Automatic annotation (TrEMBL):
The chain crosses the membrane at residues 22-43, 73-92. It comes from Scytalopus superciliaris. The keyword Acyltransferase does not apply. The gene is Timm23. One of its GO terms (cellular component) is TIM23 mitochondrial import inner membrane translocase complex. It is found in: Membrane. Keywords: Membrane, Transmembrane, Transmembrane helix. Pfam families: Tim17. The keyword Membrane applies. This is TIM23 translocase.
Length: 121
């Protein structure tokens, strides 16, 4: 086994990713997760709403519409929350000049407060 690093890094670069770099992974991951859960929820709702219909093209279209509508809704919601959380995290880190758990707690708290302030339940 070699005892050297796997990647070549520019001089002065950190070996770990910063909060800004991780934001892209967080936002994308939340969008994909939301789309998956939304599609599964849409399939459940579509099958439930069309249970009295015979298997036909109109039923398939109705189920597919519910899957895509719910998938987009969930992806949009989770992606927006991840964007807010990441933006707050980066802003707090740059303002404080420190990378610690307090940034994460503050970003999560601010995101939750902003999300709840819109009147959503």
């Amino acid at each position: 086994l070699q005892d050297t690093d796997e990647f070549i890094l520019p001089t002065g670069a950190n070996k770990t990713r910063g909060r800004f770099e991780l934001a892209f992974f967080t936002i994308g991951g939340c969008c994909m997760t939301g789309a998956t859960f939304g599609a599964l929820n849409g399939l459940r709702l579509g099958l439930k709403e069309t249970q009295n219909m015979a298997w036909s093209k109109p039923r398939n279209v109705q189920i597919l519409n519910m899957v895509t509508r719910q998938g987009a809704l969930w992806a949009n919601t989770l992606g927006s929350l991840a964007l807010l959380y990441s933006a707050f995290g980066v802003i707090i880190e740059k303002t404080r000049g420190a990378e610690d758990d307090l940034n994460t707690i503050a970003a999560g708290t601010l995101t939750g407060m902003l999300y709840k302030s819109t009147g959503r339940v």
